[in-house]
Amino acid sequence: MQEEVSYLEYNSQRSHLIIPEYGRHLQKLIDQATAIEDREERNKAAKYIISVMGSLNPHLRDVLDFQHKLWDQLFIMSDFKLDVDSPYPIPSKDILTQKPDRLKYPQNFPKYRFYGNNIKYMIDVANSWEESELKNALVLVIANHMKKSYLSWNKDTVTDEIIFQHLLELSGGKLNLSKSNEELSNTHDLMKVNKKVSNKTQFSTNKPGIVKKTNNKGHLNKNNKNTFKKNS
Question: pLDDT tens digits for 6-28?
């Protein structure tokens, strides 16, 4: 019993799995292939391991890009110690440990957050266009979208003058609609966009081909024996 217990392996005593989804047995296969001295035998072992890895995803096994991925994972799981002839460029350990550059937020402290960053992008695009009817149409679309975004934040109401003032401020004084005769969409119409439209009708259907018959007031007719009838 003492000798049998000595052969038991515990996870705390095992080596760390680099890619755990392939399991312990495949990691041991790679370690054995790395220890083979004959290069030709190592190449055979590497190709066999690649076929085993591909069998886990048979629908992608013959895709060229997927084969490239499997070879890269093979070298990564061997800790870049496996010396075999790869059909693809061997990845570098330095590239694997390289960290990406930190992304910066497009705006740190936007003044009117309820408009969102996309509105500012649209305003910058409009500023870059030359004066034309197409630019005027774009500016009007932006102003209407600003009004809709404002109403989603403030459910009461907002005047066109306030939207024009915010547009002038966000555009750096380049887009001025306060001097024009343009009018934005009605507040009621913009508020309706975010609401679900009810499709209730006078007749309500319970089963395909069967309709409940109602009286003139829209209530269920209880006195009529032919309350249910099939649609012709």
Answer: 667 777 777 888 888 888 889 99
pLDDT tens digits for range 66-91? 888 899 999 999 989 999 999 999 88
**DSSP line for 18-59:** SSGGGHHHHHHHHHHHHH---HHHHHHHHHHHHHHHHHTSGG
Whether the Cβ atoms of residue 74 and residue 49 lie closer than 8 Å to each other: yes
End-to-end CA distance of the chain: 83
User: Residue 115 and residue 150: Cα distance in Å, rounded?
Assistant: 7
Instruction: Say how far apart CA 148 and CA 185 lie, in whole Å.
Output: 9
> How far is it, in rounded angstroms, from Cα 98 to Cα 149?
41
Pairing type for strands 205-207 and 210-212 reads: antiparallel
Token reading at 144: 């209407």
